[in-house]
Amino acid sequence: MEREVSKGRPQGSCCGPGIWNIQYNSLLNLQFTRRTKAVAFVDDIILAIRGETVSEVEDFSNLELSKITAWSKSNQISFNEEKSKVMLISRRKLKKVKEIKVYLLKKPLEQVTTMKYLGIIIDNKFNFSEHISYAAESCTEVIHSSSK
Predict the structure, then answer these.
(1) How far apart are CA 15 and CA 84, in angstroms?
(2) pLDDT per position as a tens digit, 38-52
(3) What pLDDT score does 22 carry?
(4) What are residue 17's phi and psi, to 5 degrees?
(5) Confidence of residue 125 (pLDDT cuts 50, 70, 90)
(6) Partner of 114 for a Cys bridge, out of 6, 18, 123, 142, CB 3.0 to 4.6 A?
(7) What b/e string do you get for 83-118 counting C-beta neighbours within 10 Å, with b at 16 or more?
(8) Residue 45, φ and ψ in degrees, nearest 5
(9) Directed axis angle between helix 16-28 and helix 54-74, to 10°?
(10) What is the spatial distance between Cα 108 and Cα 58, in angstroms, rounded to a whole number?
(11) What is the pLDDT of residue 12?
(12) Helix-then-strand count for the chain, H and E
């Protein structure tokens, strides 16, 4: 079977990962502020942005995402806004979760209190109780399925 590829990277090809790494590397080499740390694994990326206040984090987040938007346009790569989320993590005791307005491609990102990244459930307090519950439930399912 033959197929003409006009966009993206062919999965399973020997050169696909190398081509992706070359292109994706330019995203990781963007000039982010010193408050931003970009962490990537394959095609999943997290931007960790520090700030003194919620509004400062919001401003830096939107600044960094505008750089990523420009990069995506110049590289003809699109992001799935459905999968892109924002989570405010704080050590301070917040009476309620602060709302943060962050935009990717001029669309607001959904704010969440937990997210799954590379199989680990991260919550906005870094206590990992949801991940521990998830892992325990998965182990229980495996134990019960192997005894049948």
Answers:
(1) 27
(2) 988 877 889 999 998
(3) 77
(4) -60, -40
(5) confident
(6) 123
(7) ebbbbbeeeeeeeeeeebebbbeeeebebeeebeee
(8) -135, 140
(9) 140
(10) 12
(11) 60
(12) 3, 8
Residue 23 confidence (pLDDT) above 90? no
pLDDT exceeds cutoff 60 at 144: yes
DSSP state string for 44-55:
EEEEEE--SSHH
| DSSP secondary structure, 57-110, as one string | HHHHHHHHHHHHHHHHHHTT----TTT-EE----SS--SSPPP---EETTEEPE
**Exposed/middle/buried for 61, CB within 10 Å: 0-12, 13-18, 19+?**
buried
**Count of residues for the chain?**
148
Which of helix, strand or coil describes residue 120? strand
Strand partners, 49: 36
Secondary structure of residue 134 in the 3-state scheme: helix
Distance CA 72, CA 56 (A): 24
pTM for the full predicted model: 0.76
Look up residue 8 and give its amino acid: G
| 62-74 per-position pLDDT tens digit | 999 999 999 989 9
- Asked whether the beta carbons of 54 and 48 are under 8 A apart, the reply is no
